[in-house]
Amino acid sequence: MSRLPQQLSEGLQHLGLDLSAGQQGQLLEHLALLAKWGKVYNLTAVREPESMLRLHLLDSLAALPPLRRHTGGAATRVLDVGSGGGLPGAAFAIAAPELSVTCVDTVAKKAMFITQVAAELGLKNLRAEHARVEQLKAAPFPLVTSRAFASLVDFVQLTRSLLAPSGAWMALKGQHPAEELSALQAAHPDIEVFHVEPLSVPGVDAQRCIVWMRPHN
Prior knowledge:
- This protein is of the alpha/beta class.
- It has helices spanning 4-15, 21-41, 49-61, 64-71, 89-95, 108-121, 152-159, 178-187, and strands at 76-81, 99-105, 126-130, 141-147, 163-173, 191-199, 208-215.
- The chain has one domain: Vaccinia Virus protein VP39 (Rossmann fold, 3-Layer(aba) Sandwich), CATH 3.40.50.
- Helix 1 packs parallel to helix 3 and helix 2 (21-41) packs across helix 3.
- 38% of the residues are buried.
């Protein structure tokens, strides 16, 4: 019998996320779809389900409590840039129904996969866009996020027109990106990095952090 349900439950407990049995089932379904279509759609280099659970799903969900602190748990539109297999976007949509998540990817197969995930899991708050993010036509978002998408300089530059006036960027990174932060300050002195927040991911012995940014008022 698969150990995944128990590992997910323990991981969520570690992260302080109280999800229903239905939501946990949806997360495991997303994982199963990632495993099934991963090779065909080139969604992830990680193939083994237990590793995918830790390195992708829990890694994405570790950012949810900080996100909710930022939004106060209010209904919020979120743009996930370079979402690939829906990480973190689909995981956020499952675990936080108050979020309305748009995942954008330049690769048609990846956008198609996220559309399939939304349909199979009945996620009305998840949608996918096949586009280059700098060419995406959409109302500005209060929160723009990415995970392993690009340097901070490029992330800010490519998505600036899609950030609402009082919005924030939430970049999920590995170890503290000191060089990227210096480059960001040089390229975009009008951007404020208001918090670099360390994250702890259950079962992952590696540094993770969120870089929070916004335009100076």
